[in-house]
Amino acid sequence: MPTAIAVTSADLVLPAPDRHTPSAAVLHPPERLDLEQALAETAALLDGNGHLLVVVPSWLPAPVVRRLHTVRAILETDRIALLGIDLPPLATALLVRQLRQLTVCDFSPGIIASAARLLSHYIHAGALLGSVAKLDRVPVDFKAHARSWVSGAQFAVLANPTPHLVKLGPGAVLPPGPGFATHLSFARGQLPGDWVAAELAPAWQVQGVLENPLPADSPAWWGTPKLIEFAAAIPDIAVLYQLVASVRREECRWCGLELIGDRCGFCATPIPALSRT
């Protein structure tokens, strides 16, 4: 049976890159559904799919996270994986799309679940910001904070894979880009300009540029509505397949599912370092 991907917000479901890539299910928050309805919603997804992978972003409110864990516990199923993701909103949406792409490949649910951590390292995620005064996701020194009060100041910030911050201006060195083929997605907040497409895209040598709507959680994540969020990711399913397939597979000693990396995506059991050598 197929493996389904679920998210907690509709704006994390980007358009499919091809007609083969399935969409993702959107789970409703506690204020929209009571517990009984949430159980029915999740049970229906399990009835139509073999396993369910739920992407759980780090910015989710605590009641939403508790609801997800409660539903999984009450259903008493080992077919639900709650995948903790620590990426900005637009990058999270790109990762969700990559996981959706992998579900049409011949990977087992455990491999797809543990691939989320692997693929996260290959997404370059950042934003062009009009202020870093309230940015707490990336280290900001005192000088950058002070410059935020200068009218017209703009900052290029990279949050993943390695934090990087630079004030734009003459001689500014742009954040380092990926050393492999990617497409660049961006989403506009309340910051005008075409810097991402006109300057960042050529500097990063991306193979394509696409604009998407700004996720609702982006202004809070970046600490300001004056932003243009961007993320570069691998778009090609053949490359994604080869990347995941090239990693050594293990068997989880607790739940028995296949996995890659150092931790099971379903039960979070770590793999001893000795078995990975």
3D structure, described in words:
This protein is α/β, with parallel strands linked by helices and 277 residues long. The protein contains 8 helices and 12 strands. The protein has helices at residues 35-48, 62-75, 89-102, 109-120, 142-147, 195-204, 218-222, 237-245; strands at 3-7, 25-26, 51-57, 80-85, 124-129, 155-160, 164-167, 183-188, 209-211, 227-233, 249-251, 258-260. The strands form 3 sheets. The protein has a 6-stranded mixed sheet with strand order 7-6-5-10-8-9, sandwiched between helices. A hairpin with a 6-residue loop joins strand 11 and strand 12. Helix 1 (35-48) packs across helix 2 and helix 3 packs antiparallel against helix 4 (109-120). It is globular, with a radius of gyration of 19 Å. The protein starts with a strand and ends in a 17-residue tail after the last strand. The model has no long low-confidence stretch (mean pLDDT 92).
What's the short version?
This protein is of the alpha/beta class and 277 residues long.
Characteristic key phrases:
four-stranded parallel β-sheet; 8 helices; alpha/beta; 277 residues; 12 strands
Give the topology.
Blueprint lengths: L2 E5 L17 E2 L8 H14 L2 E7 L4 H14 L4 E6 L3 H14 L6 H12 L3 E6 L12 H6 L7 E6 L3 E4 L15 E6 L6 H10 L4 E3 L6 H5 L4 E7 L3 H9 L3 E3 L6 E3 L17
Helix pairs in contact: 1-2, 3-4
The value of Rg in angstroms is 19 Å
Strand line-up of the largest beta sheet: 7-6-5-10-8-9
Which of globular, elongated, flat, extended, rod-shaped describes the shape?
A: globular
Give me the strand/helix succession: EEHEHEHHEHEEEHEHEHEE
